[in-house]
Amino acid sequence: MNTKKLLRPLLLILTLTFISCSNSEIKVESPDGNYTLVFNLNEKSEAIYHVDYKGTGIIEASKLGLGIDGLPTEGLKATLVETKMHNAIWKPPYGTKTEYPEKYSEALVKITMDSGEPLYNLRFRAYDEGIALRYEFPENKEKVTIEKELTEFSVKQGAIAYTTRVSQGVIEKNSC
Questions:
Q1: What tens-digit pLDDT sequence spans the chain (176 residues)?
Q2: Is there a contact between 50 and 40 (Cβ–Cβ < 8 Å)?
Q3: Quick check: 49 and 62 in contact, CB under 8 A?
Q4: By CB distance 3.0 to 4.6 Å, which of 8, 64, 170, 176 could disulfide with 159?
Q5: Integer CA distances (angstroms), 61 to 49, 52, 100, 104, 144, in order
Q6: C-alpha distances in angstroms, 77 versus 26, 36, 80, 133?
Q7: pTM over 0.70, yes/no
Q8: Which long-range contacts (CB under 8 A, 24 or more apart) does 10-15 make?
C-alpha cells in the first residue's frame, strides 16, 4: 500500500480544518486550535478582523488597511489566494537559543479595488503562541505612497498587555 496516497487526503483535511473560507469570512486557526483569526469585509467593504483565544475574544472587531496613493479605503474586494501549513525549525543568526520551532497555519488574502485594481495582500499567520499579520505590495508597482495606516487593535478595557519599547528590552506588564 502506498503511504503517500494515504497521506494526501489526510493533509488536505488538516489544512481545511485550520483554514476555512466562506463568502463572508476567512478563518485561520493555530495548529493547537487555541487562537483563531477571522477576517472579513464589513458593510462598507472595509477590511476588518478579530482574534479569539480558546473561544474568548481578545481582539474585538478592528479595522485593517492602508490608505494608498489617494485611493479610497472602502469598496474593497478580498480574495483568498493561498493557504498553507508550516512545520519547521528556525535557526536565528544570534541569540540565547540556536533553534526555535516554527509551526503555523497561514492564509494569503489579495485586497483589490472594486474595479479589480490590486492594492496589497494581507498575510495572516496563526501560531500556537499567537497571531501575526503583514501587508505585502505587488512587485510590479515601482512606488507606493502610504498616506494612512488604518490597522487597529481593539482590546477590552482592563486587558493586560506585555510590552517592550525596544527589541531585546525589558518586558513590562500594562493594563489597557
A1: 444 444 444 333 444 444 544 447 999 999 999 999 999 999 999 999 999 999 999 999 999 999 998 888 888 999 999 999 999 999 999 888 999 999 999 999 999 998 888 899 999 999 999 999 999 997 777 788 899 999 999 998 888 888 888 888 899 998 87
A2: no
A3: yes
A4: 176
A5: 5, 11, 31, 22, 27
A6: 13, 22, 10, 18
A7: yes
A8: 11/85, 14/85, 15/83, 15/84, 15/85, 15/105
Residue 132 has which C-alpha cell? 501575526
Round to whole Å and give the CA distance between 127 and 31.
Answer: 7
* β strands within the chain, DSSP E: 19-21, 25-29, 35-41, 47-53, 56-63, 66-68, 76-90, 100-113, 118-127, 130-136, 146-149, 160-163, 172-175
List CB contacts of 60: < 8 A, sequence separation 6 or more: 50, 154, 155, 156
The residue among 159, 86, 155, 154 whose CA lies nearest residue 124 is 86
Phi and psi based region of residue 139 (left: phi greater than 0; alpha: psi -120 to 50; beta: remaining):
alpha
Residue keyed to cell 463568502: 23
